[in-house]
């Protein structure tokens, strides 16, 4: 059964393969909307799907453009979802599992010092974490079976055990890492729109081993998650927002 949300939702992925995995779970597209440097696939149920690009900077810029265009058209979004595949920290987030962020944290925005890494907030400016609404995280976790924890945003994918250990030391609640969530969250925050991040785990965070990646399984898990997400968001909008 088609679920129509009371407010439009923007789903921002990094690449078209992730966008298409989300689209498989939703009613067929109603059309395409051209934006500067990108395009939206608009579904019949009010979901706009955007391949925003790889990395926090491009994801932020493209998402901000989509948010601005929607506001100017008199159709502002009520929720932004950063979605895709990513790395999971063992043993909390095994391959094929889903993670929904209770904190979207940029892991490498700051300064290296002789005493270790200082986040930008300790330098006296900026922010390093955006927190999705607790009620939304709870509803989505219950609906999809996703584990709940911090999802880190990195500009460089972790490729060594030492780097993975350093991230876990600084962020004990981290379950996954991706490259776009914080950028998407920054754009959403600038427009005063709530944000959610959900990742399907395709690889372990640690030594880079392409043979161990399960991208197809993770994309399938992402499709499955969004098949359950629409009614969960409808419930959240009706009762908890």
TrEMBL record:
Pathway: Quinol/quinone metabolism; menaquinone biosynthesis. The keyword tRNA processing does not apply. One of its GO terms (biological process) is L-methionine salvage from S-adenosylmethionine. It catalyses: futalosine + H2O = dehypoxanthine futalosine + hypoxanthine. InterPro entries: FL_hydrolase_MqnB (IPR019963), Nucleoside_phosphorylase_d (IPR000845), Nucleoside_phosphorylase_sf (IPR035994). Residues 52-210 form the Nucleoside phosphorylase domain. Keywords: Glycosidase, Hydrolase, Menaquinone biosynthesis. One of its GO terms (molecular function) is methylthioadenosine nucleosidase activity. The keyword Hydrolase applies. Pfam families: PNP_UDP_1. SUPFAM superfamilies: Purine and uridine phosphorylases. GO terms for cellular component: cytosol. Its EC number is 3.2.2.26. PANTHER family: 5'-METHYLTHIOADENOSINE/S-ADENOSYLHOMOCYSTEINE NUCLEOSIDASE (PTHR46832), FUTALOSINE HYDROLASE (PTHR46832:SF2). Belongs to the PNP/UDP phosphorylase family. Futalosine hydrolase subfamily. Catalyzes the hydrolysis of futalosine (FL) to dehypoxanthine futalosine (DHFL) and hypoxanthine, a step in the biosynthesis of menaquinone (MK, vitamin K2). This is Futalosine hydrolase. It comes from Streptomyces argyrophylli.
């Amino acid at each position: 059964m088609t679920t129509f949300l009371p407010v439009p939702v923007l789903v921002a992925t990094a690449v078209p393969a992730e966008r298409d995995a989300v689209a498989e779970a939703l009613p067929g597209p109603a059309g395409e909307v051209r934006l500067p440097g990108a395009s939206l696939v608009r579904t019949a149920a009010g979901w706009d799907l955007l391949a925003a690009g790889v990395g926090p900077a491009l994801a932020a810029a493209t998402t901000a453009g989509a948010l601005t265009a929607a506001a100017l058209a008199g159709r502002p979004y009520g929720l932004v979802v950063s979605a895709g595949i990513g790395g999971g920290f063992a043993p909390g987030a095994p391959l094929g599992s889903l993670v929904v962020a209770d904190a979207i944290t940029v892991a490498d925005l700051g300064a290296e010092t002789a005493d270790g890494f200082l986040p930008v907030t300790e330098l006296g400016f900026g922010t390093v974490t955006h927190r999705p609404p607790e009620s939304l995280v709870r509803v989505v976790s219950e609906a999809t079976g996703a584990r709940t924890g911090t999802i880190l945003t990195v500009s460089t994918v972790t490729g060594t055990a030492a780097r993975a250990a350093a991230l876990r030391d600084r962020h004990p609640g981290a379950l996954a890492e991706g490259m776009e969530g914080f950028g998407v969250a920054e754009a959403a925050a600038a427009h005063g729109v709530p944000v959610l991040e959900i990742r399907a785990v395709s690889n372990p965070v640690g030594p880079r081993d392409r043979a161990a990646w399960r991208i197809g399984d993770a994309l399938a898990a992402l499709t499955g998650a969004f098949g359950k997400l629409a009614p969960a968001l409808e419930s959240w909008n009706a009762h908890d927002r």
